[in-house]
Amino acid sequence: xxxxxxxxxxxxxxxxxxxxxxLRQAGFDAMSVLDQRLGGAIDEVLAAKCAAELRxxxxxxxxxxxxxxxPPGDHAGIIVLRLTQQDxxxxxxxxxxxxxxxxxxxxxxxxxxxxxxxxxVRGASA
Length: 126
Description:
The protein is α/β, with parallel strands linked by helices. It is built from three helices and six strands; from the N terminus they run E-H-E-H-E-E-H-E-E. It has one domain.
């Protein structure tokens, strides 16, 4: 299953709400899990909702990094943050670098693992 290009993002509840605003200020369509009252939803429900809406999920949840469970190409993109610090300022600073990459490249159908050193990509056109 190949989905069309994702231009929209859903920020998981485990990330700062400010990340949603950071994406919006960069010109992206972004909403948080809490915006849709999906707080506490199981991963499969959240993944299905994102796929239906063609939204890339942005999360700290390492379960979304399991390519056996969420194979590249079967979703509108997954961005998993694996940061040494999870305070708001650090998350926003690291994600600013991701936004720079998003200006030229889409995570559609891919898994992006983001840490302080950069982005590792798994999936089609990686």
